[in-house]
Amino acid sequence: MPGRWKLGSVGPPLEGTQARIDPDTGEIQYTGRHVFMGYLHDEEMTQKTVDENGWLYSGDIGELDADGYLSITGRLKEIIITSGGENIPPVLIENEIKSELPVLSNVMVIGEKRNYLTFLCSIRVEPDATTGAPTDKLDSVALAVAMEIGSDATTVSAAQNCEKFRKYISDGMIRANTRAASRAQHVQKFFIIPRDFSVDGNELTPTMKVKRSVVEKLYAEDIEKMYASAGK
């Protein structure tokens, strides 16, 4: 709509359209005369896509603010369901962590069927001049953070073992937790991975989305270590 915009939002629903957020899953749902009535001769698919009152299940996770502006924060298929049955939108939490910690390139929250959340994170690095693949050398942003926190780390391998870097990330994690929608969305532990995600490394899609199942398999041992001392 002309003149109606807000940073970080896709705007308010268009005229003739209503939008709502499912209180249980956080899914964005739409209704209006533009929403189709269903699939021809396929009642099962229709019921999975549109409810009996004409509300379309978008598959997107989002928020409607007090002014009616809609923000899309993730996909429903990315929802994490904890051991306690809580529905957790990982992308929203990942974005909060990255906003607190500019030194991080990628963050991936873990917690499916777990009793608390953890995350894997990669530190910003210089790409290889020839291949573009991530190297071990911290980039200018990461080096500036290292200097700010009094660390002499210049590589990811050094940062992994640097207590000052770990404290910096831990403090950012705690700040991000203060903005969580519930205690179930608090992250409690993290692991700094040795190499940033990349398309060539098969951790990212061509559109730069994280392949969660691939990353979980790749770092399965490190993930298990974060849960081995549960409650401690």
Automatic annotation (TrEMBL):
Keywords, in A-Z order: Fatty acid metabolism, Ligase, Lipid metabolism
**What's a single GO MF annotation on this record?**
long-chain fatty acid-CoA ligase activity
Question: Which positions, given as ranges, span the membrane?
Answer: none
- The segment annotated Disordered runs over 1-20
Q: List the InterPro entries hit by this protein, alphabetically.
A: ANL_N_sf
Domain of life where this protein originates:
Eukaryota
GO CC entries: endoplasmic reticulum; membrane
Pfam entry (one):
AMP-binding_C_3
Official protein name in the record: Uncharacterized protein
Organism classification: Eukaryota, Sar, Stramenopiles, Oomycota, Peronosporomycetes
